[in-house]
Amino acid sequence: FYIYWSVKPRIVLLGKTRSGKTYTAKTIVGQERRNSPDSATETCELKEVCVAGKIVKVIETPGLTDAPEKKIKAELQHLVYMSAPGPLVLLLVIRLDKTFTEEKNTVKFIQENFGEDALCHTIILFTHADQLKEESLDEHIRDTPDLQAFTESFGGRFHSFNNKNTENRSQVSELLEKIEKMVEENGWRYYTSEMLQKTQRKKQFCKCLFIGGVMLGVTQLVLAPITLIAAGGAAVVSFYRFAKNG
Q1: Segment 77-88 mean pLDDT
Q2: Residues 12, 107, 182, 172: is their CA dihedral positive or negative?
Q3: Residue 234: phi, psi to the nearest 5?
Q4: 159-211: pLDDT as tens digits
Q5: Residue 133, Ramachandran bin (φ over 0: left; ψ between -120 and 50: alpha; else beta)
């Protein structure tokens, strides 16, 4: 088994705190699982391993989807540095042994913090696959309408790990095959650090611009010029260059 990649594979693990990101990283790199709780990662951590003849970088992030805004901004900057020139894939880690509820907001989180383009670079990675017992993952998703709709938001791309069985390397090789297929469908264009930085700049501009206390959205920024009324005067600001170049 050999996978051809023209770039060094860089995998970023995203997800809520205690979703199983740490054990997932250990499974990918082939590190033995200890009989201890899945400790919460405080900051981005990098691991490397040789898989299918390639050095794979695995970057584990803290629980960004439920973190304060200041923490998210700091860790995204850290992520840009560690994954340069950008990750090949974003793995969204979700537990199968928990009720699927708040995960619906994850799509919005990725769009706001990574940009719309990030969705086509994302694969959902379900942990605790041993909880399915006799039911297959495909059957479980079909029987859960909310979960099915959620996976379709990411092009129906998903995989599962049994992190209790780190010796099962086939689940890792199958994941890498799915990553390669996704990258091929994307024309070998991976998610770049520039995309992330551009999204963060747009997000910052959106937060700073108000008219009468109402925040302007990205769509309004693109429809520049905009007239801002402030301190009894009018200021006309053109955002054409910003919308064009980020």
Answers
A1: 81
A2: positive
A3: -120, 140
A4: 999 877 777 788 888 998 898 889 888 887 778 878 888 888 888 777 665 44
A5: left
Distance CA 63, CA 72 (A): 9
Which phi and psi (to 5°) does residue 130 adopt?
Answer: -65, -20
In contact, 130 and 164? CB cutoff 8 Å: yes
Please, what are the domains in the chain?
10-194 (3.40.50.300), 209-245 (no CATH)
Nearest C-alpha neighbor of 87 from the set 117, 54, 115, 121: 121
Query: Under DSSP, is residue 181 helix (H, G, I), strand (E, B) or coil?
Result: helix
Q: How far is Cα 49 from Cα 52, in angstroms, rounded to an integer?
A: 10
DSSP β-bridge partners for residue 47: 58
Task: Using alpha carbons, list the distances in angstroms from residue 212 to 19, 216, 231.
Answer: 40, 10, 11
User: What is the C-alpha to C-alpha distance for residues 196 and 214, in angstroms, rounded to an integer?
Assistant: 25
Q: String of b and e for 137-146 (b: at least 16 CB within 10 Å)?
A: eeebbeeeee
